[in-house]
Amino acid sequence: MTSKIKETIASLCLGCGKGSYRGEYDGKRRLRSGSLLLEIAIGISVIGLISGFFLTRGIAINRAAREQKTKNNIEIVTSALASYLATNKRLPRPSSPERKGLESKSVDTAVGTVPFNTLGIAERCTIDGNGRPLVYVIEPALAEACEAIYFDPNWMFPPKYFCNSAIIPKIKIKSNAKNDDIVAFVIDTADNPPQVSDENIIISPSVHTFWVRRNFFLIHYLKGCACDKENHAEEAVF
């Protein structure tokens, strides 16, 4: 009787031992599973942060590249305008889609696209970083046919000339400091069109708006002097 009791107690203790081991094993497995889920969550968070950083960086680089392309093309157009002025003693009139890169036939045209065929440059050089045609605005009087750029005191009967001081300017730069010299032309992106009326062309500058005053254009792009023959520099705004 005593031996049977001992065997029964021993079997019960053995069973209790197995149950305790199984419970400990299940607890460790649940702990390991929870740790794994936590590690996965941390990994996903890190990947998300890294992806967000590179995405933001990529967008910034892409934007900078577009802005640089816009600036480069504006500089190409400005240099082409200087060459045209040196040859023709006037600036070309804006173009339109119908004219396909040729300047307008109307002397009253002051706003349009860059006349790339008239200037002899590629059309791809007259678009902004987003692939849209640049807007070209000109002081109408500076596109009229002239025989010279500067006034010659030896003229008996003075012809039309580019530096005529009797021009009444139409282009007005909004919020710009007062300047006695006229704005020769403006190059801007398509998302910032000018306000045009019969009397004035109002320009509200954006970060891409580029305008050049007549004297600055003559001094820095034609390597000449100002209209009043005084070789002083003025600022272009970009």
Summarize the structure.
With 238 residues, this protein is of the alpha+beta class. It has helices spanning 2-88, 116-119, 214-220, and strands spanning 111-113, 135-138, 171-173, 183-188, 195-196, 201-203, 210-213.
Describe this structure in words.
It contains 3 helices and 7 strands. The protein is of the alpha+beta class and 238 residues long. The chain has one domain (49-220). A hairpin with a 4-residue loop joins strand 5 (195-196) and strand 6 (201-203). It is elongated. The N and C termini lie far apart (109 Å).
Give the overall average pLDDT: 81
Oligomer description? single chain
Order of helices and strands: HEHEEEEEEH
Count of alpha and pi helical runs: 3
Distance between the termini: 109 Å
* Largest sheet properties: 4 strands, antiparallel
Overall body shape? elongated
Q: Work out the count of structural domains.
A: 1
The strand line-up of the biggest sheet is: 1-2-4-7
Low-pLDDT stretches: 230-238
Estimate the helix proportion, in percent: 40-55%
Strand content: 5-15%
> Rg from C-alpha positions?
37 Å
Summing up helix and strand content along with how strands pair, one would put the structural category as: alpha+beta
Number of separate strands? 7
